[in-house]
Design a protein that fits this description.
30% of the residues lie in helices and 21% in strands. It is α/β, with parallel strands linked by helices. Strands 7-6-5-8-9-12-10-11 form an 8-stranded parallel sheet. The chain has a 5-stranded mixed sheet with strand order 2-3-4-1-13.
């Protein structure tokens, strides 16, 4: 009988691993497998379990193998995967110019997943609200983007970063600027901050989508407008709009998605409001398998 193994992964390992598989497809498959409860289950098929131990997520498979990884990193991987899924489902086909408002490891993971899982990206502009010292762009990120043919700009302001972008991703609030600037017609704005965006930013939004309709109550939403798929997220688009659908409904064709080429669409990632409760066992399992395959992490007897 083979002894169990204990694999420890850190944030740098996760950054390396998300370039090795399509995390957006992994999340989409999990959404299809659990249409009633949405993503982020703590138990998977075959007895696989994922639990939170302090700041660490621990995956146990049926054979007894364990994998420990930072919970914040796993959450960042899931948010980035949902971002890529939203872009792939809600952007019109064609060249994508992306903008990231974010910092640190979460921002790095977003950039890596965009490069791996969003087709036809030609350019990415990045603004770090945390300042240059917290920028998600380092030599490794720049090298990955260059290798995939994606141009890179490090912007001094949110307005500069978002100008003309078809995909705008916000992973942390912008507190020192009045708004993100003008959003291009036909763009998709992904809010992964766990907080409502300013009305100045969302005033041009035509429709709102969420990652999981089942999280609307947990996010403190109220009743939706007549004919909407569910209630409102916390003050979406300044309270003007109800939620059209979630990403599973768009992915399966239950909802047609974009109705007009020029509409600006807002995707609220509601799991951003409570990341500790949204551990994703399917994504953790895929990360574990990929790490073993590529020899990443620190492996020891279980």
């Amino acid at each position: 009988m083979m002894d169990s193994r204990f694999l420890r992964l850190d944030t740098e390992d996760l950054c390396a691993l998300v370039s090795e598989f399509d995390s957006a497809q992994t999340v989409a498959e999990e959404l299809l497998a659990h249409p009633d409860g949405g993503p982020g289950r703590h138990a998977g098929p075959g007895g696989r379990l994922l639990e939170l131990r302090g700041d660490t997520a621990v995956l146990r498979d049926p054979g007894g193998d364990l994998c420990a990884l930072p919970a914040s990193g796993l959450y960042a991987c899931r948010v980035a995967a949902l971002t890529a899924l939203a872009a792939n489902q809600l952007l019109d086909p064609g060249v994508v110019t992306a903008s990231l408002i974010g910092s640190g490891a979460a921002g790095r993971i977003q950039l890596l997943v965009i490069a791996r899982s969003v087709p036809d990206v030609s350019h990415v502009a990045v603004h770090s609200p945390g300042g240059p010292h917290a920028s998600p762009v380092d030599s490794g990120i720049a090298g990955v983007l260059e290798a995939t043919g994606i141009g890179l700009t490090v912007a001094a302001s949110p307005e500069e970063a978002t100008f003309g972008a078809s995909l705008v991703v916000v992973t942390e609030p912008v507190v020192s600027e009045p708004c993100l600037g003008h959003l291009a017609p036909g763009s998709v704005l992904v809010n992964a901050t766990g907080r409502s965006l300013r009305e100045e930013t969302t005033g041009c939004v035509s429709a709102v989508y969420v990652d999981d309709l089942g999280l609307l109550d947990a996010a403190g939403s109220g009743p939706g407008r007549p004919g909407s798929a569910a209630g409102r997220v916390p003050v979406p688009a300044g309270g003007r709009l109800g939620v059209e659908a979630d990403l599973r409904q768009v992915f399966t064709g239950e909802h047609p998605g974009r109705a007009c080429a020029d509409h600006v669409l807002l995707v609220e990632l509601l799991s951003g409001a409570a990341p500790g409760t949204r551990l994703d066992v399917a994504l953790a399992e895929r990360i574990h398998r990929t790490a073993l395959c590529h020899g990443l992490g620190a492996l020891s007897p279980g």
